[in-house]
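Suppose you are handed a protein chain with no further information: no name, no annotation, nothing but its sequence. What can you learn? This example shows the usual starting point.
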Amino acid sequence: MKVEQGIIEGVDRETSSIYFSCILKKEAEGIVWTDEMDLQGFLLVWSPYQEGFQLMGQPLRKEEWGRFRTWFEHTIPSFLKAWGMECFEYGADTKELADMFDEIFRDKKILSEKQKIFHWSGNEVSLKQPDGYQIKLVDREFLEEEYKGKEFITEEIKTAYGTLTPYFDHGIAYVAIKDNEIVARADMLFSNGTYGNISIHTKEEHRRKGLASYLAMKTIKETVKRGLIPIWDCTESNLASEKTANRCGFQMVREDIISWFMV
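A reasonable first move is to predict its three-dimensional structure. Written in structure tokens, the prediction is:
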């Protein structure tokens, strides 16, 4: 396996995770390890934003499994350790790729959880702005202003893109401000020409006030203006996120599997 630095085309699928397909197009930060023989072959893609991996491309031939396992053991544990992690978390573009990993790592205790994928229905939802909060679009003017906790949004952008600069061409974000502090955000940082992924986060003490839904709808509207279909994802255990998605007019279209094991 080798690290691939350039744009890789023709590998992602309709069901590929948008976080990882953006890495292949060099529109988001990440690392791609690829089979040395063929860029259309097997890819192992790392997303610092997701702190996880995606299996992409084509499965390895069975006679290559041992070589890959040896490479994995020499590379991935130390890579994860540098990130302060001991768990290898991954998704797969196809069942064949997932089955391949089950066989290669059959000695590991592999755990899994369903991840739900939603598409926006196209029905705009009217929501009242929560009282006591100022809502701001994150643009160049905003980034020149002084707010407490500004890193709540700027670090999110940097994790996605590496720097703030690409955000102005690709991203959308809204924040809620109270007492000059940023307390909630919604953003669209990953897009692939068809879909734009909506993400939210609210500081714990400001939850259950309608901020997530309101900011998400603001972001959805801007995403649609760019000709993109808003999408949403969350694990099946994240009931709060699913509730917000439903409130904003999203409908589930499929379930993926996220797996993990200790290295």
